[in-house]
Design a protein that fits this description.
Keywords (chain A): Membrane, Transmembrane, Transmembrane helix
Oligomer: heterodimer
Pfam family, one (chain A): DUF898
Helix content of chain A: 55-70%
Largest interface: A-B, 69 and 70 residues
Strand order of the largest sheet of chain B: 7-10-9-11
Cofactor (chain B): Zn(2+)
Radius of gyration of chain A: 25 Å
Order of helices and strands of chain A: EHHEEHHEEHHEEHHEEHHHEH
GO molecular function, one term (chain B): metal ion binding
Protein name (chain A): DUF898 domain-containing protein
Largest sheet of chain A: 10 strands, antiparallel
Distance between the termini of chain A: 37 Å
């Protein structure tokens, strides 16, 4: 019996996501960052449930306390490294080289393997806590192989000035995908890295234009060439959006899950549009927010001391009559508001539309084969993604 | 995944599976999944965190009735790993506390004495330039150093009188910066910085000499180097704990300030003691350190409570008392000698940043001045040990 291909619905909406992100963000700031485990869990729960292949929502089943536990474990292990090793490095750096640059360099290099370790372990945790139609995903243990491969590929990519970036992307994606399971069915990453190079073509072109422009500018000193540099920069930026859409499409279509395949048709133009419109919306709203905060600040200050209005706000000394702690408090509130809204708006105007676009353009082929998939055992994994939480790795996922 | 028939009755949901079996979910056991994107549907699960079954309802009338009748729909899953959580939390706190309060300070103390002078020098030079630029404010032009020859000669005379060269691991570099702040501090590698504001605030040359001796005390004890190494060790660990929430730097700096305050208090007392000894040996009044603090306290108040904790200096009252004690002892032994500078030399020192920069007499009668807001000298990265005056800026 042949089943129709499964399309993916997307149920995420800006307003509820905004409320959730703002609420959890405020709680995170108020708890000096400790709510972040709950924030992350709840945000993921929302994003997962929004993606509905064949109309059935994905489910993120992680508990925030699991993440907290994993974080505590990572702190016990990492605190020693970060504290003692950094101090010793700093000492030797100043003893031998009379500067702190070598210490920072060695310290960062020392963290690189831990970074990849954290990345793979975090993925394992996230997949182990992801379900669709009641069936768990999973990632096989294999972090050692991932760490040395990742380091090697990064080294090659850096040595080739980024030209072999698609090769690294492909190799690491293949390593992870070939160890990913859905129930008792295993994913496989097909394709060749050479075929992924084409997805990067606009970035290469943009970089070449910039490089050529720089060369011509340094040779001829004619300012017209700076125009070429700007054009190349814009081209590279747009090319990166194309790369995002195209590399996702190719890597997804080359994946298989037993007899199940995937079709994917994201559009580079849509991705570019999301970035451009999203950035405009975010900057517009942030400017409005800063303006509003300034107004409130000004009104608050003038209520405390009406004389400030006559003297004007142009000079900080004019505010001397207002108690220092009030100024400090208002400043802190303003700082955190801007920081918070920046994060929240990024979720609403960039991440949500991107996920929506990629979800809605992905289809599952031959879904009948999914009926054969059976449940896999639970992956306990006490460490959760503690290392990724302890090190400031950025979003990552 | 399958389509099922659902009937809601008094006891709960009766779920009819396609194969003819039925499931009964009791109403008190029903839980709704939280933070769901699809507002049209209600996803139900039986109680417990590890359950696999999910019931997705889309019929709005049924959803309404279930919401009305299931009592614990929004109850959170119980925390199942409380014991392990508590154990690891204790472990994490213990390990971080050991590292920040024991291991890092002990290692910093040891390593500070082993660091070759050249390395310390580099550390201090880098910090000095950062501080000069940071104090330049919005213009980003580094603050000028003051170099009037007569003033520097007076400073050199003062330094010779304190006579600490034998205690020093490396030669001193003393700089006067053209800035209003009433402060002075020491940086790694024997750098001492005095602000013009301090020269203006001091009532006489003895007070400047006392602060000078105090800073030399920090250099002899290698406090600035120790502090820089300690910072290198502890700030990373703090970053680990607070993560990068809200550009965590602010929290990091505050937390680090709180931790270092304790050591600095010890360092300040140590530098005070050194200054008292040196001043007494040089026949200068140790009480000058006290009178200077006394006047500052009259003008700005003592730091108490939380503010005192952040101020990183033992409360002034205690330090003034210590200075007076040292004075009594010195007088008892008849050790107070000639003034450190002549009147002309003192005037030259006060004008080291240029004539007219300093008023003739210290202005002590400034009523009702608002509490000054204080720029933090240490923004520039590795910090120096300051004079204990908390970096007050003259309004």
């Amino acid at each position: 019996m042949a089943f129709a291909d499964l399309r993916t619905d997307y149920a995420g909406r800006g307003a509820p996501l905004f409320r959730l992100a703002l609420k959890t963000g405020v709680l995170t700031v108020l708890t000096l960052g400790f709510y972040r485990f709950w924030m992350k869990t709840r945000m993921r729960r929302y994003y997962w449930s929004a993606i509905r292949p064949g109309g059935v929502p994905m489910e993120y089943t992680a508990q925030a306390t699991e993440k907290l536990l994993g974080f505590l474990i990572a702190v016990v292990i990492l605190a020693f490294y970060i504290g003692v090793v950094n101090l010793i490095l700093m000492f030797f750096s100043f003893s031998l080289f009379a500067g702190n640059a070598p210490a920072y360099a060695v310290s960062v290099v020392g963290l690189v393997p831990i970074f990849f370790f954290a990345q793979y372990r975090a993925r394992r945790y996230i997949l182990a806590r992801t379900r669709w139609r009641g069936i768990r995903f999973g990632l096989e243990p294999g972090v050692k192989g991932y760490v040395w491969r990742a380091m090697l590929h990064w080294a090659i990519t850096i040595l080739t000035l980024g030209i072999l970036w698609p090769r690294m992307t492909f190799a690491l994606e293949k390593y992870r995908t070939d160890r990913t399971w859905y129930g008792d069915a295993k994913f496989a990453q097909g394709g060749r890295w050479q075929d992924l190079m084409g997805a990067m073509k606009h970035v290469y072109l943009g970089a070449a234009i910039m490089g050529g422009g720089t060369l011509a500018l340094s040779l001829s000193l004619s300012p017209i060439w700076s125009l070429a540099i700007v054009m190349g920069g814009v081209w590279t930026g747009l090319g990166l959006s194309y790369w995002r859409a195209e590399s996702f499409k190719r890597l997804t279509e080359w994946k298989t899950l037993g007899d199940v395949g995937f079709r994917c048709h994201p559009r580079g133009g849509t991705v570019v549009g999301i970035y451009i419109l999203g950035s405009l919306a975010i900057s517009g709203l942030l400017i409005a927010l800063v303006f509003g905060l300034m107004m409130i600040l000004g009104i608050a200050v003038s209520m405390i001391d009406p004389g400030v209005l006559e003297r004007g706000f142009s000079n900080l000394d004019n505010l001397a009559s207002v108690p220092g702690w009030i100024i400090t408090l208002l400043g802190v509130v303003a700082y955190f508001s801007v920081f918070l809204f920046w994060g929240v708006l990024k979720e609403v105007f960039i991440k949500l539309p991107l996920v929506r676009h990629f979800a809605e353009t992905t289809e599952i082929l031959n879904p009948g084969a999914l009926a054969q998939v059976r449940q896999r055992p639970r992956d306990e994994f006490a460490e959760a993604e503690g290392f990724a939480d302890a090190l400031p790795l950025g979003g990552g996922f | 995944m399958q389509r099922v028939g659902v009937v809601l009755d008094e006891g709960g949901l009766r779920i009819a599976l396609p194969d003819g079996h039925t499931l009964d979910w009791r109403l008190p056991d029903l839980r709704a999944l939280r933070d769901q994107a699809d507002t049209e549907a209600l996803v139900l699960a039986p109680a417990g965190t590890l359950t696999l079954e999910r019931l997705i309802l889309r019929d709005q009338a049924l959803i309404k009735r279930v919401r009305a009748r299931a009592p614990a729909l929004d109850r959170r899953a119980p925390v199942t790993n409380k014991g392990r959580l508590a154990a690891w939390a204790a472990g994490a706190i213990a390990s971080v506390a050991t590292i920040i309060f024991v291991l890092v300070p002990v290692m910093a103390d040891q390593l500070a004495t082993l660091l070759p002078p050249k390395g310390e020098r580099a550390l201090g030079d880098a910090t000095f330039e950062q501080i000069r630029t940071a104090l330049g404010g919005e213009s980003f032009v580094p603050v000028e150093t003051c170099e009037a020859p007569e003033g520097l000669a007076a400073l050199a005379k003062m330094r010779a009188r304190i006579n600490a060269e034998d205690d020093l691991p490396y030669p001193l570099t003393v700089t006067v910066l053209d800035h209003d702040m009433v402060n002075a501090f020491a940086l790694p590698g024997g750098r001492i910085i005095i602000f013009r504001g301090l020269l203006e605030e001091a009532a006489n040359a003895e007070e400047v000499a006392a602060v000078f001796a105090h800073e030399i005390g920090h250099v002899v004890n290698r406090d600035p180097t120790r502090d820089a190494l300690r910072l290198a060790g502890s700030i990373g660990v703090l970053g680990l704990i607070f993560g990068d929430f809200a550009g965590g730097t602010v929290v990091l700096i505050l937390a680090n300030q709180l931790i270092n305050a304790k050591y600095s208090q010890k360092a300040e007392s140590g530098a005070d003691d050194y200054a008292h000894d040196k001043l007494t040996a040089a026949g200068l009044p140790p009480a000058a350190l006290g009178t200077f603090f006394d006047r500052l306290r009259a003008e700005y108040g003592d730091a108490e409570g939380l503010a005192a904790h952040f101020a990183s200096h033992p409360q002034m009252t205690a330090r003034i008392e210590a200075a007076l004690e040292a004075q009594a002892e010195a007088e008892g032994r008849g050790r107070i000698g000639a003034p450190v500078l002549t009147a002309a030399e003192w005037r030259a020192l006060r004008e080291v940043c240029g004539p007219g920069a300093a008023p003739d007499a210290p202005r002590l009668d400034r009523p009702d001045r608002p509490a000054p807001r204080t720029p933090d000298v240490r923004q520039g990265g590795e910090r120096g040990q300051d004079s204990g005056l908390g970096g007050r800026k003259k309004p």
